[in-house]
Amino acid sequence: MTAESAGAGSERPGRPGLPERPGRRFTLLMACLLLSSLGNGLCFPFTAIYVSELLGLGSGGASGYFIAMAAASFAAALVGGPLADRAGPHRVGALGGLALGVGYALLAPAGATPLVLASGACVGVGFGLFYAAVVGVVDAAVPERLRRTAFTVRHIVNNVGIGAGSVIGGLALHGAGTPAATLRWLYVANAAAALPLVAVVWALRPRTGRGAVPRSPDGAGPTYRTLLRTGPMALLVLAQALFAIVGFTQIEATVPLLMHDRMAVTLGWVSAVVAANSFALVALQPLARRWFERLPETASLALGPVLWAAAFGCGLLAAVLGDRGGPTVRYGLLLAFAALFAAGELTYSSAFYPLLLRWSGEAAVGRASALASLAWNLGTASGPPLGLFVIGHTSAAGGWLALAAGAGAAFAVAAVLHRRAAPACVE
After folding, report:
1. Contact, 230 vs 133, CB < 8 A?
2. pTM for the full model?
3. How confident is the model over 215-238, as a mean pLDDT?
4. Under a CB-based contact definition with an 8 Å cutoff, are residues 100 and 123 in contact?
5. Contact, 322 vs 331, CB < 8 A?
6. How big is the CA angle at 367 (ends 200 and 212), to the nearest 5 degrees?
7. Residue 261: enclosing H or E segment and its boundaries?
8. How far apart are CA 29 and CA 154, in angstroms?
9. Contact (Cβ atoms closer than 8 angstroms) between residue 140 and residue 120
């Protein structure tokens, strides 16, 4: 072990009987990630409104922004994966964070389509590079034995930051006499919030180690094709896309509309259910560490969609009962949905990225992260239209049943992954 890797992995042992915790480097990284996520939350819900209405560029301008962002993110992820493997994830992650800051800063003075498109492209490059590197960056901040805890905490921090930022942004815009001017300052704040993360990521050097994936004959390192042919990696990437399609995008896009339009749930209660999901992530994390992390990683990954199916089942029961069970039962079931869905998120976050690291090896973690990012982008692009199409053509009960069926499909892939993992994984 080198001095550098020892510095990245050494932690003070906890007191007897208490769980070991990540050290100061990880804590600092998560604090800066929280600040950056909070900055993203300040503006994220309002970008389409800002570009189309407040800047007067219409739906075409807003569409152009998001198309430029998606295309640039796709290209940057493909380039960023091999670059992170060669140059180090800390360099690529810092460059991605810097591009995000520049992109958000460009949107503040924007008034015409060219600058809006440039902002979208820059933000897309930032996301593509950052998410191709973030797995290696987080891994550099903790010893291997704490990977599962680290990625669980990272998932919670990211969600809590975006949620808190959205609330702050909404309060700042509430009653603002000039909402466009207020949003310009929020984009400046968003850009500034990325800078501490850039500095901390740059300082996190990766641990050295031999990768589990064989290098190509020309010595250039494992290719995307080599990586996908190694063990069950292709199934893991497919699972990532499915988890985004049937899970994460549905609670963000489909479930609120399903509750409001098909079940006549008030906007206040829709907000309460979404907030309960965020609070449950924080409250359940200690329990998740104590129980979920005792499972093999592949079993934990498969447990996620099982919990999601149970969560959707609570929504189904609330829809079937309607007002017959009274408001206590109805809203209690919806809150149970939020808590069970959060538990499924935690089993995913504690297992997916540690598996990705173990099966890719440190020599290919950048490429593996890029593949996971591309799968996630595919899922987040296709999930909401699919979910909205389903609930637009079914009853409330049919919508919840369809969501549960989607969770079943994700479980089927995860179960196959679990069966293949033991003989296929190279330790």
Report:
1. no
2. 0.76
3. 72
4. yes
5. no
6. 100
7. none
8. 9
9. no
